[in-house]
Amino acid sequence: MRRLKAVLSLMLAAEIMVPSAMAAGLVDPADNPISAIKIALGRRLFYDADLSVNGTMSCATCHEQKKGFTDGNQTHPAATGEAGKRNVPGLANVASFQNLTWADNHLKGLEQQALIPILGTAPVEMGVKGHENDVVARFATDPCYVRLFAAAFPGRGGEVSLETLTMAIASFERTLISANSPYDLAKRAGRSLPSAKAVAGEALFEKAGCVSCHAGENFSDDAFHMVQTGGVVETRDEGLVAVTGNPEDRGLFRTPGLRNVAITAPYWHDGSAPTLGQAIAKHDPASGVPALDDTAIAELAAFLTTLTDRTFITDKRFSLPPEACPLKK
Amino acid sequence: MRQISMVRFAVILVLGWGGAVLAQQGGGVAPNCPEDAIALPSELAAWIHPVPLVAATRQAELRKAKIVVGQAVLAEMKATPIVTYSARPADPGGKVSKGGMFQLAIKQAGIYRVAISDHAWIDVVSQGKNVQSTSHGRGPACSGIRKMVDYRLKAGTYTLQLSAGEQDQLAILVVPHSDEGRN
Prior knowledge:
The structure holds 2 protein chains of 2 kinds. By secondary structure, chain A is an all-alpha fold.
């Protein structure tokens, strides 16, 4: 508890406070302890396109704050132009998930996940594989970054490496906490949701069994399921089996969280559902999800819209940082 | 000044933007060019006749970097570190990326479409502030148009900023969209 208080005090000093309701849930891993300066460094890196092979793509290129840290595209091409594979997931409360990305149960934490877009080849995203030294050198020769790494990693002599880069990015991502949607405010105040349609949608969300997978405070059970119509037959993406090699994992994808879902279209792992209504209707009745009429879908959509956290998508602490170096000489 | 290669643009046009750059903003399956080619709509007909232009690196150079509505240009882009943008781009691009600025005069209010040949971030700036785009998408299959972004603009002078690009040269066309803007 004393450590958490110290962390929160550091974050306050750096204007990186988290909503009090979520403070107790702040993830602070022992092997990458969070600090204000590491968060500030991670934020700068998150928005820096020098982290891609040709300087054209930062983390924020695909994870736009105003869209709940998604990008509005079905998939996003690589920095080098190759086609994207899956829809960009939002980052609200991303530190709360054990399974990261759409279909991978082997990644151990946000540090390891950050290497997927940076170094990945299936698909290529930021295209750094084979250019690691060149990319790291951009930061190791930048006076501002040298100061930031020295302050963020004093025990490692200010080491600038892919490992410390991703540790800093992960620290920033752990602060991306969304807990002030109309839904949250209503629950904390003991009020009902803001419209009758949303109230009906919330009841239906439980009655129809949506909550069996979209469970918990992030509306995801963090587990893998196959609920798409046609199963694996209609998809070009085999899902979890690509990582595990287990044939039983074919067509399985992680339940996406639903926070800010109304502003993160298009939907599903392949971005194949352009609207919230289409995303709901795309669930296969054969997988146990009941068929829903238009009224029911509209009610569910009204409920899901109450999960949009405007403070999260406008919070300056999560935005493109000022150009000036946060640490003076 | 290095001569801009119109031959290269012609190759891009014929092949779509083939090979490694077939993927387009918005995702989906890359078209098989030229079999999947879609004819340019009439509003984008000028795309195939670009004239050379050099991007401005600072405001004082903007009067020499004018983009005329309805006239495509093949622009020489500049290294990001030497570009001083009128307003900070939403996606600034890294040190090794390319960017630049252009002056854009709008005579009649309406929706205008900015089409470019490769990936880059587009900002339309008025009085130091970025104008919010109204929609974005990709160009017709195999047209050589990689990305199109629409803006609702009033009559006046704007700065068109391109950032986080990769190529030394970028084809650009600004046109009125859906009869709403006429210049």
